[in-house]
């Protein structure tokens, strides 16, 4: 029986972009698994701050709860800052995987120090730094560097994006002794993949969305999920916002 993984796009994606994302990610799933992609109905067009993260969280949760009801075997949220990750784990029994958390733990096993290269924005850098600290990996962090372009410009300015990735990656390796590079935004995945960034830089390039999908596969294959002792179900109560939208009632 085919196992299904839902990749939640935690921002708005038009239908055609959803299709291309599904096609890209489907290249990295094993036989016996399939990927579906769904975008949230409301929210910002990118997540580059705690404000964006928390504004979009209710709609991410909505899609996650639907996924479990629809029979998906695991959920992956397609954003490096892992929006609504803990909340989804409380609400769901099936595995919920965050690309940021997964990629940083994997990077910490592949080398002594990793650098995160993300998009523009001081708020995003602060958010990532707090995430690294929460995961207990501060001693593994060489630096956080930036492609000084907003998320929505990355694919429009592909040549500039890859050029900056190479430049910032080289500086991290040579000046800060980083031996692993993490893509600090899942929108960088397709660009880095297309231009063989790992071959160019000569160190492991950890692509968060790829490792998150493969880790979701692993958990499903081994019949593992997050502990409900660590992430207990929240108390059931009316949720007027979702009822007003005639949408999913999270805690039925």
Describe the structure.
This protein has 252 residues and is an alpha/beta fold. Helices cover 44% and strands 15% of the residues. The chain has a 4-stranded parallel sheet, sandwiched between helices. Strand 5, helix 5 and strand 6 form a beta-alpha-beta unit. It is globular, with a radius of gyration of 18 Å.
The gyration radius over C-alpha positions equals 18 Å
Report the principal-axis shape: globular
Major beta sheet, specifics? Answer: 4 strands, parallel
Strand content: 5-15%
Q: State the helical fraction.
A: 40-55%
Q: Report the mean per-residue pLDDT as an integer.
A: 93
Q: Order of helices and strands, N to C? A: EHEHEHEHEHEHEHHEHH
How are strands sequenced across the largest beta sheet? 2-1-3-4
Distance between the termini: 29 Å
**Separate helix tally:** 10
* Structural class estimated from helices and strands: alpha/beta
Fold blueprint:
Blueprint: E1 3-9, H1 15-26, E2 33-39, H2 50-69, E3 74-77, H3 85-91, E4 96-97, H4 99-110, E5 114-118, H5 122-134, E6 141-146, H6 158-175, E7 180-183, H7 189-194, H8 197-201, E8 205-206, H9 208-221, H10 240-244
Parallel strand pairs: 1-2, 1-3, 3-4, 5-6, 5-7, 7-8
Helix pairs in contact: 4-9
């Amino acid at each position: 029986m085919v196992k299904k993984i839902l990749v939640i796009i935690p921002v708005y994606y038009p239908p055609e972009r959803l299709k291309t994302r599904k096609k890209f990610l489907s290249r990295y799933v094993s036989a016996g698994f399939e990927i579906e992609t769904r975008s949230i109905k409301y929210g910002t067009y990118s997540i580059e701050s705690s404000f964006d993260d928390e504004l979009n969280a209710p709609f991410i949760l909505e899609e996650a709860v639907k996924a479990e009801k629809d029979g998906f075997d695991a959920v992956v949220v397609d954003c490096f800052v892992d929006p609504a990750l803990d909340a989804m784990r409380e609400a769901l029994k099936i595995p919920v995987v965050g690309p940021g958390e997964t990629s940083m733990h994997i990077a910490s096993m592949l080398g002594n120090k990793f650098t995160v290269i993300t998009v523009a924005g001081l708020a995003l850098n602060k958010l990532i730094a707090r995430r690294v600290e929460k995961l207990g990996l501060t001693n593994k962090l060489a630096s956080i560097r930036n492609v000084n372009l907003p998320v929505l410009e990355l694919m429009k300015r592909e040549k500039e994006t890859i050029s900056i990735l190479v430049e910032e990656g080289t500086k991290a390796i040579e000046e800060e002794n980083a031996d692993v590079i993490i893509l600090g935004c899942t929108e960088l995945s397709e660009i880095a993949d297309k231009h063989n960034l790992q071959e160019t830089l000569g160190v492991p390039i950890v692509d968060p969305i790829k490792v998150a999908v493969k880790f979701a596969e692993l958990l499903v294959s081994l019949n593992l999920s997050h502990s409900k002792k660590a992430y207990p179900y929240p108390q059931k109560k009316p949720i007027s916002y979702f009822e007003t939208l005639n949408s999913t009632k999270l805690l039925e």
